[in-house]
C-alpha cells in the first residue's frame, strides 16, 4: 500500500550538506506526490547548515513534473488521506499485521476505551523525520483508533477521542493531525491529565525520562510501548552516568508499580522495506521490541505497591523476567 518516493537511492555525491539537502527534497517530493504542500522550517536549514538555494535548485531539477500542491502546508489532501486510509486498512486486514492487531484488539476488549493518546509520533515536516517510518506508524495508529471505535460501538459507549503530543510538532503537523480527526496537546506535561483507566497510550520509543517520570506514573488501561525491560536497563544507565534522573528516583520500583495487575505480550512482527535506499537490506520488523501492556483485574494500587516493596529479591527476580 506504500507509495514509493521517486528517489530510490541515497544522495551519494558532494558534501554532508548536499545529503541533508537531498533528504529534504526527497521528503518534499514525496509529500507533493500526494498533493500535499511541504514545509521545512527555516530553523531546520540553520541547524543543518544547509544552503536553502541548494535545496531549491534540487527541487527545480527533480520535482518539476509533480502534481500541483495545496497552498497551505499540512492541509490534508484527498490523495494523502486515501494513502493513509490504505495503510490503515492494510493494518486491519493483511496477514502481515493481523497478529499485532489481534493482540491490541484483545487488550482493548478488556476495557472501555474513550481516549487514545499518541506520544512522540514525530513531525512529518521536520527534515530529521523519516517519512517511511512515519507513514507505517500513522497507519498503525489509525488502525488502533479504529479498533477502539469499533469496540465503543459494540458496547454502546461514547466514541473515543484521539490525541497527539510531540514537542517537535509545527503548525503544519497540527493542521494535518487535526484533519485526520485528532487533537494536538501543546504542553508536554498536559497529556498526563488525559491518561486514566479508560485510556490507550501508544508510545513508540519515548524519551526515557518522560517514560518513567511521567507515563509510568499513570494507570492507562492499555499501553503499547517499547519493551519495558530494555527501557529499565537504559534508564539505569542514564541514572548512573548522567543526570537525566534524580539519584534517588526509583526506576525499578516505578516499573514494578506500573506492572501491578497487568498482562503483557510482545507484539507480533510486521515486516516492511523500511530502508528503500538500501536495496539489499530486505525486510525489517516495524514493531521490533514493541509490547502491549494492559490492565487486568482492578487492584488497589497503593496497597499492592506496598506489598511489592516488601517482596525484596523476589520482586527483583520477577521484574528481571519481564
TrEMBL record:
Superkingdom per UniProt: Eukaryota
Pfam families: SRR1 (PF07985)
Protein's recorded name: SRR1-like domain-containing protein
InterPro entries tied to this protein: SRR1-like (IPR012942)
Residue ranges annotated for the SRR1-like domain, each copy included: 109-244
Organism this protein belongs to: Aureobasidium pullulans (Black yeast)
Amino acid at each position: 500500500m506504500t507509495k514509493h518516493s521517486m528517489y530510490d537511492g541515497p544522495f551519494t555525491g558532494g558534501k554532508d550538506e548536499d545529503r541533508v539537502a537531498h533528504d529534504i527534497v526527497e521528503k518534499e517530493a514525496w509529500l507533493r506526490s500526494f498533493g500535499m504542500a511541504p514545509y521545512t522550517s527555516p530553523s531546520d536549514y540553520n541547524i543543518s547548515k544547509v544552503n536553502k538555494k541548494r535545496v531549491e535548485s534540487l527541487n527545480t531539477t527533480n520535482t518539476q513534473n509533480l502534481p500541483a500542491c495545496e497552498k497551505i502546508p499540512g492541509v490534508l489532501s484527498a490523495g494523502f488521506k486515501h494513502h493513509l486510509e490504505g495503510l490503515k486498512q492494510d493494518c486491519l486486514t493483511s496477514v502481515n499485521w493481523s497478529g499485532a492487531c489481534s493482540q491490541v484488539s484483545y487488550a482493548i476488549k478488556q476495557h472501555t476505551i474513550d481516549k487514545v493518546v499518541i506520544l512522540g509520533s514525530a513531525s512529518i515536516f521536520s527534515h530529521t523525520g523519516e517519512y517511511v517510518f512515519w507513514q507505517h506508524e500513522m497507519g498503525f495508529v489509525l488502525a488502533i483508533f479504529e479498533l477502539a471505535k469499533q469496540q465503543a460501538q459494540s458496547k454502546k459507549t461514547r466514541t473515543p477521542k484521539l490525541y497527539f503530543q510531540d514537542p517537535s510538532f509545527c503548525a503544519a503537523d497540527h493542521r494535518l493531525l487535526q484533519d485526520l480527526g485528532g487533537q494536538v496537546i501543546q504542553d508536554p506535561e498536559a497529556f498526563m491529565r488525559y491518561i486514566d483507566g479508560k485510556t490507550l497510550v501508544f508510545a513508540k520509543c519515548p524519551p526515557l525520562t518522560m517514560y518513567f517520570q511521567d507515563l509510568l506514573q499513570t494507570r492507562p488501561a492499555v499501553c503499547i510501548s517499547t519493551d519495558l525491560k530494555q527501557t529499565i536497563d537504559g534508564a539505569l544507565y542514564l541514572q548512573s552516568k548522567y543526570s537525566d534522573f534524580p539519584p534517588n528516583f526509583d526506576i525499578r520500583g516505578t516499573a514494578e508499580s506500573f506492572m501491578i495487575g497487568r498482562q503483557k505480550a510482545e507484539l507480533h512482527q510486521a515486516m516492511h522495506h523500511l530502508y528503500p535506499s538500501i536495496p539489499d537490506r530486505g525486510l525489517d520488523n516495524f514493531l521490533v521490541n514493541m509490547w502491549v501492556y494492559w490492565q487486568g483485574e482492578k487492584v488497589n494500587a497503593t496497597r499492592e505497591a506496598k506489598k511489592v516493596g516488601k517482596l525484596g529479591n523476589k520482586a527483583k527476580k520477577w521484574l528481571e523476567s519481564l
